Every structure is written in structure tokens, then in C-alpha cells.
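Here comes just one.
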Amino acid sequence: MSTKRSVPLDLYHEDVVRLRKPHPCGSFDWTIVRLGADIGLRCHGCNRKVLLPRRELEKRLKTFVSRGPDFDARTAANASSANGAAATAEATAPTEPTIR
């Protein structure tokens, strides 16, 4: 059974990721500096920059150490739009008829 992802992983500029194997300098942590089909990474140990295909990064990724400012802005926008949608749904919900 394969674990294929139909949707690409959400990556944001300046995310800090931890990979499964260390860089030759010994560091596991990398900062995302470029997004696209190839992902640009900067090593926290030696500041070396490398490009990895998105699929390869998704295979090597262990965890997110921290998320970039774009992630914070997007989650705040999603939360506010979700709260606004809930308030709109409550305001437009049909009321029960009163019986006299």
C-alpha cells in the first residue's frame, strides 16, 4: 500500500523544517528560502543553500520546527473568515414560527 499525497504539502517562506538525516555538518534543521517545484533550503549549521524537488523534500521531512510569517497570516485570515461565516450562518438561520 502506498501513501501517495494528492495535494502538495503547504510550505511557506521562512518555515524551519527538520529532516530525517543530518547534513554533513551535523545539522538537521533547515530554513525554506525558495518555493516552487524545487524548494530552496538553507542549512542552520553551515548556511549552505541547496535545492530539493518538492516531492523529495516531502519524503525527507520529519517535522516543522517553526512556521514562517506567511503561515501565521494565512491561519489568522482563515480563522477570521471562518468566524465571519459562522456569524453569517447564525444570522441567516431560519427562526421557528411563533404559535399564537
User: Anything to note?
Assistant: The chain has two helices and five strands.
